[in-house]
Amino acid sequence: MWQVAYSNGVIVEPVEEYETKIKFYVGPGNNSNLIKGIMKRRPWYVLTDKSQDASFVWTQIKVMSYFGLQVKRQRLPHINEEEIQEYQTQSKEAKN
Fold it and tell me: Residue 59 burial (CB < 10 Å; 0-12/13-18/19+)?
């Protein structure tokens, strides 16, 4: 990540300690070792043994009780075809 910031001329001072850490739980299977490794690299996350305490849960099977706890979101407004074409035209013009 520092390479991307450096190449773009952005200086990011790392935060040594975060006031609050976000708990995550990773169940067995489903690339659990990969997910644990990735999450441990983020200093604001901490691994927990209890899925009930976690804000991020990665499991091999669907646990319907977790889905019931999630906040319902509204659907995003539909983008019509004209807006897509206008965006593509602006993008092409910006490249030239």
Answer: middle
What is the C-alpha separation between 27 and 59, in angstroms, rounded? 5
The residue ranges of every structural domain in the chain are 17-71
Candidate ranges 3-12, 16-25, 51-60; pick with highest mean pLDDT: 51-60
Helices (H), 23-70: 32-40, 64-69
Please identify which residue in the block is written with the tokens 């200093």. 43
* Interval 24-80: pLDDT, tens: 999 888 889 999 999 998 888 999 998 888 888 888 877 677 667 666 665 555 555
57: DSSP letter: E
Contacts of 75 by beta carbon, 8 Å cutoff, 6+ apart: none
